[in-house]
TrEMBL record:
Source superkingdom: Bacteria
Transmembrane segments: none
Organism: Streptomyces griseoruber
Stated name of the protein: XRE family transcriptional regulator
HTH cro/C1-type domain location: 7-61
GO molecular function terms noted in the UniProt entry: DNA binding
Family annotation (CDD domains): HTH_XRE
A Pfam family hit: HTH_3
Amino acid sequence: MDFPRVLRERRTRRHLSQLDLALRAGTTQRHLSFIESGRSVPGRNMVVRLAESLELPLRERNELLLAAGYAPAYPESALDDPVLAPVRTAIGHILRGHLPYPALVVDRGGDLIAANAAFDLITEGVAPELVGPGTNIYRLALHPDGLAPRIHNLAEWARHILARLGHLAELRAELTGYVPQLDPSAGLLGFAVPLRLQSSYGELRLMTTVTTFATAVDVTLAELKLEAFLPADAATAEALSAAVGPMGASAAADQAPGAM
């Protein structure tokens, strides 16, 4: 990789001038200009400072170091590595803590790592091959054998999903083919795009939140995302509580950590 070109692309993508980045990284515009032109070779510490100043994801920081000829600074552990055992425990606690509301954890590609028992209400009736650890939640959402036939506002929700797939061009192309050309329906909440999903407990109106491990220094951990589905009205809250119930909560306590 051409380090000067890669650095310049990362900087311009974030709409930073050379002066802006130089000030953030504690160097001079002249020095940064020399680095981007290839006239100066930065040391490892300078590359790390530039990557941090650009607020790059950990994976891209490693890529920038490799482009400059240095070893990666951030490990990328397998999720079942003993070093991440506390993370697996924490994920189990978080998923159980969201009951009776559905919640799941996915990796950077949208592949399912774990989910709580309430997520079964979301996935009821979908093709078996689209559900379970290792399957892709974006494909689950938009595939004709997945949630799509039960989503009342498919046009809005599909755009919400596709907008998150900029780094997954092949998957985005596949899922775009599943989405019909529909006019957006009326009745948005105004502050969020709800998922209007038909279920055995009636229509569920759900908002989503995404949480990450903000202080992670491991690539795998930094790329995990917890997505929780929260009720957008009282009827949905009551339906979720009724669907999970005490036995569902007990099952989630047993199953959530094992799903990983």
